[in-house]
Structure formats: C-alpha cells, structure tokens
From TrEMBL:
Lineage: Bacteria, Pseudomonadati, Pseudomonadota, Betaproteobacteria, Burkholderiales
Molecular function terms, GO-annotated: acyltransferase activity, transferring groups other than amino-acyl groups
Top-level taxon of origin: Bacteria
Annotated protein name in UniProt: Acyltransferase family protein
Record-annotated Acyltransferase domain positions: 8-359
InterPro entries the UniProt entry points to: Acyl_transf_3_dom, Glucan_succinyl_AcylTrfase
Transmembrane regions listed in the UniProt entry: 12-31, 58-77, 89-107, 150-171, 183-204, 224-241, 248-268, 280-299, 311-333, 345-363
Any one Pfam family match given in the protein's UniProt record, by short name: Acyl_transf_3
Keywords: Acyltransferase, Membrane, Transferase, Transmembrane, Transmembrane helix
Length: 393
C-alpha cells in the first residue's frame, strides 16, 4: 500500500538543494572549470569544496522531483496532471529563455570573444538564432536555456511518467515501488543503485558529452530519468524512507570517503588515465550515498510543516529561475571594486539572494507575472496537508 501523506522532509530537502545551487553557481565564477563568465582571480582553491556536491546535487533534485510528481499525479486526472505540469514548467522556460537568460550569453561573448555590440544588438542576434559566436571550434547556440535546462528535462521526464501512468496505471507503478522498497534494504539499498549508476557512468560517459541540449545528452538521460522514475515509484513507500534513515550515518561516511578519493584523484594528473574507470565507480558511489544520507537525515529531522516551509516552497522555483543571471550580472558590477575573492564571493551570494527574493516578492503579488515564474495565478501560501508528525521519542 502506498501512503499519500505529504513528505515534508522532501520539501525541505528540495528547498536546501535549490539554494545550494546559488552557492555552487557562485563558486563556478571562481574555479577553473568552464562557465559563462570567470573571475580574473579564478583558480583551484575552492574546487575541493565544489566536489562535495558535484556528484549528487542534480541527481537528488531529479529524484525528489519524481516523488513530488507522483504525489501530484495521484491527486489529479492524467490529462489535468499533464496540463498543470506543462503550464508550470513550459511557461517559465519560455519566459526564461526570452527574458531572464539572455544577459548570461551576452556577458559571455563580451568576456570571451570581445563582443563590442550593445545588449540590444546582441538581442537581435539572439532572437535570430545567430550561431557565429565561435571559439576553438565551439559555437554558442542561441537562443539558449543555460541553467534552465533542468526545467526542460523535468518536463520531458514528466511526459514519460504521464505516458507510464496512462499505459500501465498508478497501481502497477505503486506495485513496482513496493517491490523496490522490499529489495532496497540493508547493504542492497546502497550497493545496487550505486552499481547501476556506476555502470551507466562507465559505459556512457566516455562516449556522450554532457551537453544539456536535450536531444543528444544520452549520458545525463540515462542517469537522471531512472532516478526521477525511481522517486515516482518509491514516493509512498514509507518503509524505504525509514530504511534510508537507518543507513544515514553509514551512507554519509561512505560519501565523504569517496569525496576524499575524488579530490585526491583530481589532483594527481598521472592518475587520470590509469584510474579513470575506478574514479567513475567512486563518483557513482558518492552520488548515491550522498542522496541516501541527505534523505536519511532529512527523514529523521525535517518531517515537519511550518509557515517557513510553505513560504520557501513557493519561493524556491522563482528564485531558481532568477539566480544565475543575477550572479553573472552582479559579478560584472563587482569587478571594478577589486574586492578580495573571499569577500567578493560573500557579497555576490548576499546580493543574489536578496535580489532573487526581491523578485519573488514582486512576482507573487502580481497575478499576470506569477505563471511566468512557475506560480499559479491564484495560488496562496500552502497549508499543511496533514498534521505535522511528532518527533520520535
């Protein structure tokens, strides 16, 4: 039997995971990894910290999104479920690509290619799908969704879930979830999913670059779609979430040990060729164990409702939509101040959070704006679905 009670701890995890993206994308400005714009002082210093969340943060979001989608699908007829999810995802994606995202590629071509045109000139090229911004054989695809690729993928995976619901029914999906919950106990709850993720990474990662372009991103689809569907199947399986709580300390220890191994690997150039397969297996183990640990600790400590949860649950998607463009724009403004990187990074995070929530506060008060940021036109702060569970004695 599946349980339809809302899993409040997953709301808190989703909130924290999205806000972690603000820290992560701010960090991308300061590391040597490829990104849209770069600090003049970018270097290796914080890359070990970035590796703490790199293996698992997006996988966790797709897993939790699968759970949320399953709960919504159980409350709505199939057609209404698909229409609602399409409206909540496609309108923000379209608006984001036309209004929110364009400053990112504009400053990217200004910085990387020395583009001297105005923003208006750039938007004319952007809307005409200009593909002449090229460097080292790579051309910038315009228009682009940049960080909103997650929204596009989530919509496609929702279509897959809706097709499964229409073809085999929610009862059969719940039965699959029951069998999975019975299988994923003890050591198998860690080893089996990690092994599957490892096989995907070892088999596909060498051949399929992570493009975030949807149509050719087969490694990412082979990773994220199963996690999304697993979340949907396991949504109501209370025994599974209790099992993750039991495993939380073991999973955390394994994830941290894998992180230490990955940091060592990345700082040993001679190991790159020799230990690549082993490193991919360790990455997958870190990926899944971190998810187990986060969900396990969340189940233990975050199973409660509050006004803060309801407010942040509503805020998190608009904040996500706006945050990366704000990081890019504020980073350009702060360059002339020549602040030390640590101080500048802190200022950048504070400015991004403040502006993101400022945008949300405006949007939620204007009915015409709400759908373009993923909010229902007439939505009010969410109320508790069931009484908040008491803490365990």
């Amino acid at each position: 039997m599946h349980n339809n009670e809302r899993l409040y701890f997953l709301d808190w995890i989703r909130i924290c995971a999205f806000f972690l993206l603000i820290l992560y994308h701010t960090g991308m400005y300061y590391v040597t990894w490829d990104w849209h714009v770069k600090s003049p002082q970018a270097g290796h210093a914080i890359e070990p910290l970035m590796l703490l969340s790199s293996p698992w943060r997006l996988s966790l979001l797709f897993f939790v999104s699968g759970v949320a989608s399953a709960f919504l699908a159980r409350k709505l007829p199939a057609g209404r479920f698909l229409r609602q999810r399409s409206g909540r995802l496609l309108l923000p994606l379209l608006f984001g690509m036309l209004v929110i995202v364009p400053p990112q590629p504009y400053f990217e071509v200004v910085e990387k290619l020395g583009y001297a045109g105005s923003y208006g000139d750039f938007m004319g090229l952007y809307l005409r799908a200009y593909h002449g911004f090229c460097k080292d054989g790579h051309c910038l695809d315009l228009p682009t969704w940049n960080h909103l690729w997650f929204v596009a993928y989530l919509w496609v995976y929702t279509l897959v879930l809706a097709a499964l619901l229409a073809s085999i029914g929610s009862a059969r999906i719940a039965a699959v979830g029951t069998r999975l919950a019975r299988l994923l106990t003890g050591w198998k709850a860690i080893v089996l999913p990690a092994a599957l993720l490892g096989l995907v990474r070892i088999a596909l990662k060498p051949y399929f670059e992570e493009t975030h372009a949807l149509v050719d991103d087969w490694f990412n689809h082979a990773t994220y779609l199963p996690l999304f569907l697993a979340g949907a199947a396991l949504a109501g399986q209370r025994a599974f979430w209790r099992e993750l709580e039991t495993l939380r300390f073991a999973a955390l220890g394994i994830a941290l040990a894998c992180w230490a191994a990955l940091v060592t690997y990345h700082w040993q150039p001679e190991a790159v060729q020799t230990w690549t397969t082993a490193a991919r297996a360790v990455w997958a183990l870190c990926q899944w164990c971190a998810i187990v640990a986060v969900c396990g600790f969340g189940h233990r400590h975050l199973g409660f409702d509050s006004a803060k949860r309801r407010y942040l649950t509503q805020a998190v998607f608009p904040v996500y939509i706006a945050h990366q463009t704000l990081i890019v724009c504020f980073s350009r403004l702060l360059r002339t101040a020549a602040l030390p990187p640590a101080v500048e990074g802190l200022v950048l995070v504070v400015l991004t959070l403040t502006a993101s929530f400022g945008i949300f506060e405006v949007v939620r008060r204007v009915p015409l704006l709400r759908p373009w940021f993923g909010l229902k036109r007439d939505e009010v702060p969410e109320t508790a679905a069931v009484p908040a569970p008491r803490a365990a004695a």
